[in-house]
Amino acid sequence: DVKVTQSSRYLVKRTGEKVFLECVQDMDHENMFWYRQDPGLGLRLIYFSYDVKMKEKGDIPEGYSVSREKKERFSLILESASTNQTSMYLCASSLGQAFNEKLFFGSGTQLSVL
Amino acid sequence: AQSVTQLGSHVSVSEGALVLLRCNYSSSVPPYLFWYVQYPNQGLQLLLKYTSAATLVKGINGFEAEFKKSETSFHLTKPSAHMSDAAEYFCAVSESSTLGRLYFGRGTQLTVWP
């Protein structure tokens, strides 16, 4: 079965810190995504990537950047964490660029910025 | 542009009762529609998807959804709720023009009473 692993389940950081959230998938998927989940707002797409070294902005990219140096790993970077970035972060992957593909999700990282 | 509206952020039913979770979409082209479920402290997993093969789609755990183009709806149903169905449910849409990106609704929290 496909496994999407997020490095931390819970993370507590201070305002202004640089934060790295790591995501690894083990099924050679082309596409990887970072979503943010907030109560009452559902999932909002931050960034996604269709291939190594490629990245595309999602709906809420401000304050975030990403890195995809290897196919299996997709990192989300908060350059200078702020309290409004306290949230649940979900990583997902999918096989290719068909339009009806299933996303596989990690278990999420709950980030608290103090 | 595509969007998804889930009517009712919270739905409560008794065990054994019908489950009906509502989803309406907005899309300028034939959409691909999905329902995902999120159990507590887990990532999302696919429940079912519509990709134009059949308007009534059967998913896992006894759930099904019917695509109604005239109503732009894709409501999720289950004839008899079980305690284990308690979770958050997300409707999502994608189009060929968005190359696999999913747009999620805000979610519906389902509570099942004994």
Please outline the major beta sheet of chain A: 7 strands, mixed
Rg for CA atoms of chain B: 13 Å
Uncertain spans of chain A:
none
DSSP E strands of chain B, number: 11
Quote the beta fraction of chain B.
over 45%
SS class of chain B:
mainly beta
Total count of helical runs of at least 4 residues of chain B: 0
Q: Which band does the percent of strand residues of chain A land in?
A: over 45%
Give me the strand/helix succession of chain A: EEEEEEEEEEE
Number of helices, where a helix is a run of at least 4 consecutive DSSP H or I residues of chain A: 0
Helical percentage of chain B: under 10%
Helix content of chain A: under 10%
Distance between the ends of chain A: 37 Å
Largest interface: A-B, 28 and 27 residues
- What's the average pLDDT of chain A? 92
- Poorly predicted runs of chain B: none
Q: What tags apply to this protein structure?
A:
A: 114 residues; mainly beta; 7-stranded mixed beta sheet; B: 114 residues; 6-stranded mixed beta sheet; 5-stranded antiparallel beta sheet
What's the structural blueprint in terms of helices and strands?
The complex is a heterodimer of chains A (114) and B (114).
Chain A: E1 4-6, E2 10-13, E3 19-25, E4 31-38, E5 42-49, E6 56-57, E7 64-70, E8 73-78, E9 87-94, E10 104-105, E11 109-113
Parallel strand pairs in A: 2-11
Antiparallel strand pairs in A: 1-3, 3-8, 4-5, 4-9, 5-6, 7-8, 9-10, 9-11
Chain B: E1 3-7, E2 10-14, E3 19-26, E4 32-38, E5 44-50, E6 56-58, E7 64-68, E8 73-78, E9 87-94, E10 103-104, E11 108-113
Parallel strand pairs in B: 2-11
Antiparallel strand pairs in B: 1-3, 3-8, 4-5, 4-9, 6-7, 7-8, 9-10, 9-11
